[in-house]
Amino acid sequence: MKKHSARVAPLSACNSPVLTLTKVEGEDRVRENVVGTTDTQAANGTAGAESGSSRRKLHCCIRVTTVQVQKALWGVAMVMCVCSSWAGSTQLAKLTFKQFDAPFTLTWFATSWNSLFFPLYYIGHLCKSPERQTPRQRFRECCRFFGDDGLTPKVFFTKVAPFGLLWILTNYLYLQALRKINTTDVSALFCCNKAFVFLLSWIVLRDRFMGVRIVAAILAIAGIVMMTYADGFHSHSVIGITLVVASASMSALYKVLFKMVLGSAKFGEAALFLSIVGSANFVFVSFVPVILYFTRVEYIGSPADIPWAYLCGVAGLLFAFNVLVNFGIAITYPTLISLGIVLSVPVNAMVDLYTCEINFNTVRLIAVCIICLGFLMLLLPEDWDQCIIQLSTKLRKRDEPAEGSAEAGATTGLNWRGRTRTSMSTFAH
Q1: Vertex 291, ends 286 and 293: CA angle to 5°?
Q2: DSSP string across 102-169
Q3: Which of 23, 38, 46, 168 is the most buried (most CB within 10 A)?
Q4: Tens digit of pLDDT for each residue in 41-59?
Q5: Measuring CA to CA, how many Å separate 297 from each of 291, 293, 304, 395, 403?
Q6: What contacts 208, CB < 8 A, 6 or more positions away?
């Protein structure tokens, strides 16, 4: 397996890939240099060296804090962009079907936009990289991701085409579900794909067992059952829920198989992979919308009746969403990107409340809350329990000196009163 300095898996929808950023590695090197300098100066035993090392430590801490604040601010902007692009594409697709009832044609059209990934990446490479390469050189270098022989016909049909098929199925089933049920239910149920990813990775990839994620998966399944019960098991709602759960399952299968077959990829390799998926969709799947048109399954009178503005809007928002999800972690934390996805559920609920007749009964609200809670529980890191223990230990140690100072002050008169007032005012703040 090749070593990469920064890796990302090009996954759809609810993915939050983890990668090692060059910026973070640089910070670690700065910390190591500071610690090494401190040890050397301590060995010399000079007071001036100690003051210099303390100033360097302070400068390093300020720099690290500044980087973290910048990532948090970028994260807030990323949450808003991910939420608006995902909710906007869902709502606009719902409106598109009122004028152009062709879910597969819309899927084909939106997937074809993925071919723009690598050209946009190459433009960014020219702007940022000090070692500029020609498009052919960059293409060949990124093709090493598929193996020593690069992108051969065998690699294409065994390692690329299956993922393109899963990509199309995920989006097509999602759009079909939008024709049956409201956008709030669709966006909430699709969040279950993160629970399916955990279950599949636990079974197939032998990932670490975590009790909290098992509970989250159970909550997701319970939310699906309650969502079905909310409409009284009517045929249209059952079909719609089945379609969106199948879409979430295809998305989870895509992610787990990508991790198992291809592993991880650099940003350029991910962009190339998605561009190949989009280009192959445009070339090899174009005959399907034509067949659906002539068989009148997805028929429209004339090209003038096609709402091109809606089609381009849906495709553009989905493309922006995939760019943010797959490459936004270069500037912020993956958890914040995933948070933008779950926040699209209340946004869709507010839009549905004012634009269509939706019955927000108690069962539906509980189901949506349970699914969102399960999604948030799946965002917890693997060592979340150890972090809580360490935090409680630090808080306990912080309280111990205050109690010790109060007991020591009890031996004196005026000092006891002054210290008590000080400690009380500090506690109040």
Answers
A1: 100
A2: -HHHHHHHHHHGGGGHHHHHHHHHHHH-SS---HHHHHHHHHGGG-TT-S-HHHIIIIIHHHHHHHHH
A3: 168
A4: 444 444 444 455 555 555 5
A5: 9, 6, 19, 65, 77
A6: 382
